[in-house]
Amino acid sequence: MSPTEPAAAPSGTPPRPTVVTLGAHIVDVLARPVEAIPPGQDTVVVDQVRVTAAGTAAGTAVTLARLGNRVVSVGAIGDDALGDLLTAMMARHGVDVSGLVRRTDDQTSASILPIRADGGRPSFHVPGANLTLAASAVDPGLLAAADAVHVGGPDVAFGLNDPAFLDALDAARAAGTIVTMDLLSNLPDLVAATAAFLPHVDYFLPNEEQARAMTGEDDPERAARALLAQGPKAVLVTLGAEGSLVVSAEGAHHLPALKVEVVDTTGCGDAYCAGFITGLLHGRDLRESARWGTAAAATVAQGLGSDACLTDLDGVLALLAEE
Ligand SMILES: Nc1ncnc2c1ncn2[C@@H]1O[C@H](COP(=O)(O)OP(=O)(O)OP(=O)(O)O)[C@@H](O)[C@H]1O
Ligand SMILES: [Mg+2]
């Protein structure tokens, strides 16, 4: 089936919304608990090692699929074993990987994350093929046919900062597609350059550090207002364990994080985006969609890796009902 065909659905039920995720695709290898690199050739036995499809496009894609959306992911990966693994993991979760291009000169992006007992998450990262994603890899028709497009990591997929891609986002929005955006890195130069996308997106969801790097404002609300002035309908700044700040023309609203037993917060921002987008596609308003994002993030925080503990939308919404 081509990615632009409507989803097959039992007669009488509407097709599931289609979301296109676009940008960073990363293989995460995680271990916990790890306090230090052992000396010499020593081996330390740990409780758990996992591998996941992660990154601001692939990780969000997996969570979106788990939440019941049809998902097509667009990005650049290597023509290597990591790329085979990444596509297999995404497909296993039901994500359509036909939009991934494979590079022979660059490896699939990957991270090794030794997670501390307290949830701390240092990482070793190879950007790899993510840096090579170009506007030419994106089919404008796919974007315009989608219910939502999530631009995940234009700070590393800087080839998307191209009039052809920005025009495609505008055409998709004119056709009724919701456009959301999140960033991958905290590198000031890369993050600052993504301001060019702001007039072309509806909802921007940076974390606190990214919002600060883009605006020079230390205060998240001031940073969010400065970003809002550049075009989006709303800016949602995630604040880690402090929750998130939802800022729109209607004002600013702080949403606390849910109180859960935290194991590892890797991918919480990606899950937040996936829950938020799912809320919007279910017709929820800005604040309620942000609550769905908060609940999706709190769900994945309870296990190791960006897709941990997240089975379906009902499970995520049950967490909200417990509040
Ligand atoms: N310790 C925690 N307990 C409960 N919820 C959390 C915790 N940490 C993060 N969250 C939830 O996850 C959301 C996103 O977290 P955060 O701000 O760390 O995103 P991020 O830096 O983009 O993470 P990543 O890029 O790894 O996905 C927060 O707004 C909050 O709702
Ligand atoms: Mg993030």
Order of helices and strands: EEEHEHEEEHEHEHEHHEEEHHH
Which sheet architecture does the biggest sheet show?
Answer: 9 strands, mixed
Q: State Rg.
A: 18 Å
What do we call the CATH homologous superfamily? Answer: Ribokinase
Ends apart, CA distance between termini? 41 Å
Shape: globular
State the helicity in percent bands: 25-40%
Q: Could you give the order of strands across the largest sheet?
A: 5-4-1-8-9-10-11-12-13
The name of the CATH architecture is 3-Layer(aba) Sandwich
SS strand fraction: 15-25%
| Domains (count) | 1
Q: Give the tally of β-strands.
A: 13
The tally of helices reads 10
Sheet/helix structural class:
alpha/beta
* Overall pLDDT metric: 95
Low-confidence stretches: 1-7
**What hetero molecules are bound to the protein chains?**
adenosine-5'-triphosphate, magnesium ion
